[in-house]
Amino acid sequence: MAWTLKHRLKYRLRLFELYGQVDGAAVKIGQCAVGVSRRGASQFLDRIQLLPEFGDWPEAMAALLAELGPGEFTYGWELNLEPPRHEALSALPGVTIKETTPLVVNAIDFSRWDSWESYFYGMRKGARQSAQFARRDIPDLRFKTWTGRSSMRAIPALLRLRWGLSRRKGLGLRVVDLLASYMGWMAVSPHYTVTRLAVGAGATLAAYYGADFGANTYYLEGASEPGNQGASWALLVSMIQRAYVRNPKGTFIMGYVNYATHDEEVSGGLLRARTACRVSDYPTSVIRFHYSG
């Protein structure tokens, strides 16, 4: 619904269910959503979702393309843990790859640790101490957390901190775009939304904006005041711990990197921060291709 509202002038959303034969009966084995373009390339949203025991991805994609018909398509998403599908796609009859963008998703795989304590003390010392020193040096540091539509209460602080971050880094973000994104997502998908603010020393020092979905927690955006005395690290660690408690075998997805365009200095040490959190790398890709039918 959120995607449809944002792209309603460019795409028509189609939802698909995939069925296979099990003991002579048709059984649902997967599903996916496709934004069919009114002009240009149609977009697979996220990925084809298949039950593990029916994981024949090429066969599923071939069936979907036969249903959709000839055209231009884009497959993949920047926060997708699915492996690259370039080779599988290029082997399908009628498919011509136009462009492939390799990406690496950085996510904390909690299954690598036996307990929260083993994860926490496995973080890089500097990151761990920054979070601990914040609690020591900001005596009134506290967190305010909202889920669902009540997350809208965090929007003013999110806007202010994101706008400040944009100005410092020259990102060119527009307040109206940020507001529309927050309001749209929180209005139509509130049951996935979680926000948390770090408050202390008479100010809001850092903000977290994310989503819970299945076993995954998505860290969608964050921002902080400069010179926040480690409050941003304390906030991030608290959200990682919340995700661990929610699912000790799940993943905390911190974002992606396109190594062809990434500049670590411009990003403010983004990869160094993620490495400090002991992320695992999940190679994936966004693929633009033509299907002739």
Descriptive report:
The chain is α+β, with helices and mostly antiparallel strands and 293 residues long. The protein has 2 domains: 2-102 and 284-291, Aminopeptidase; 106-283, 3-Layer(aba) Sandwich (Aminopeptidase). It is built from 9 helices and 11 strands. The chain has helices at 2-6, 57-68, 86-90, 116-120, 125-137, 155-169, 175-188, 231-246, 270-276; strands at 11-22, 25-37, 42-50, 71-75, 95-109, 142-147, 193-200, 203-213, 216-224, 251-257, 280-291. It has an 11-stranded mixed β-sheet with strand order 1-2-3-4-11-5-10-9-8-7-6. β2 (25-37) and β3 form a beta hairpin. α5 packs across α8 (231-246) and α6 (155-169) runs antiparallel to α7 (175-188). It is globular, with a radius of gyration of 21 Å. The two termini are 29 Å apart. The model has no long low-confidence stretch (mean pLDDT 92).
- Count the DSSP helices: 9
CATH superfamily of the largest domain: Gcn5-related N-acetyltransferase (GNAT)
Q: H/E order of the elements?
A: HEEEHEHEHHEHHEEEHEHE
Number of strands: 11
Main sheet: strand order: 1-2-3-4-11-5-10-9-8-7-6
Bin the helical content: 25-40%
Low-confidence stretches: none
How does the major sheet shape up? 11 strands, mixed
What's the average pLDDT?
A: 92
Reported CATH architecture of the largest domain = 3-Layer(aba) Sandwich
